[in-house]
Specification:
By secondary structure, the protein is α+β, with helices and mostly antiparallel strands. The chain has a single domain, classed as Aminopeptidase (3-Layer(aba) Sandwich). Strands 1-2-3-4-5 form a 5-stranded mixed sheet. The longest helix has 21 residues. The chain is globular, with a radius of gyration of 16 Å. The mean pLDDT is 93.
């Protein structure tokens, strides 16, 4: 079993710089950013969401911790969008060494409890089109597609 434990400041610093790089890479792969400004645009978007780091209003940043070994196996970042009565998942990652063990599914089940405690009634998220494994997990957890953006690159 896992627990969602609020990130420490050190965990946040490690997460933050990695997040900027990974988000830029995903945006590049999806064709949303150009290589020359990907990191700068990624940093700007994330700074807008987390202007005060861990203390940013309505932002919940967790370490995903496996109970028995007290081992950090991943991270989860969620924002409360109170006007929509929704929690929005900005990032979830299970570290590579711990994947394929059910930790992501367990994290989302724990997240449902946290969202209810916040008085919210819905969980939303975005998944890149190229992330088929995540799409399969979310479908298994009962998420439904609400929008689909498509593009065709011309030669």
């Amino acid at each position: 079993m896992i627990q969602l434990v609020p990130m420490t400041e050190q965990d946040f610093q490690d997460f933050y710089e990695n997040l900027i790089r990974e988000y830029a890479a995903d945006k590049l792969k999806a064709g949303n950013y150009q290589p020359e400004d990907a990191l700068q645009r990624s940093r700007k978007e994330i700074e807008e969401q987390l202007p005060d780091g861990l203390a940013s209003n309505d932002q919940y940043l967790y370490s995903i911790v496996e109970d028995e070994a007290a081992q950090k196996v991943g991270i989860l970042w969620v924002a409360a969008q109170r006007a929509k009565q929704m929690a929005f998942v900005y990032d979830v990652e299970i570290y590579e060494a711990f994947r394929r063990r059910g930790y992501a599914e367990q994290a989302f089940l724990r997240l449902e409890e946290k969202v209810k405690e916040l008085g919210l009634t819905k969980i939303g998220l975005h998944v890149f089109g190229h992330n088929h494994a995540a799409q399969a997990l979310y479908k298994k957890l009962g998420f439904e597609i609400t929008n689909v953006h498509m593009a065709k690159t011309l030669d």
